[in-house]
Amino acid sequence: MKHAFSALKILCALSLPVLALSGCLFRTSAPVTFYTLSPMPQTAGQTAAVPGTLLAVLPVAIPTVIDRPQIVTRADDNRILMSDTHYWGGSLGDNFTRVLVANLGSLLAAKKVNVLSDAHAPDEAYRLSVVVGQFDGRLADTVRLNAGWTLKEPKGQKTLAVGHSVVQEAVTGGGYDELVAAASRAVAALSREIAAEFEKLR
Question: Could you tell me the pTM of the whole model?
Fold first, then answer.
């Protein structure tokens, strides 16, 4: 009887890791949601640009601390948080550049300015470069965008304008949908500042 009891204890001890492992295997993980920035809405009656001035947007430079798959939020001035379940649908830098091109194209279409990415730009295009210093926020608080930008003449020989934009957009709810929507509005505000400066140069 004593030997049977000892064998039962050994069997129970060996079963515990197996049960724990099976619990891990069958535990359902939270689904991952992917997000992208969205271009600003076009105004009614807006027409596409006809052949005219060309403006090429270089790839936007994003700090490596936020240019990562996970969406980064700010806990305080010195701490950031990376979500385990909310991701960008691709590179944040590529996403930012794409939306900036679309926004400027909409804003400058009436001025007969065609906006395109630098990869497809001929020599006669003006050049825009943007360097982002900060682009993050807090849920149910604000998104902050801090960026410097430079406009150069065709072939990039001469600097025509240098700007620095600081934008804050309120996050209207406590979720990531609202955070990304506020981030899109921040890129739209930056786009409007750049478009207004570019119009002065022509």
Answer: 0.83
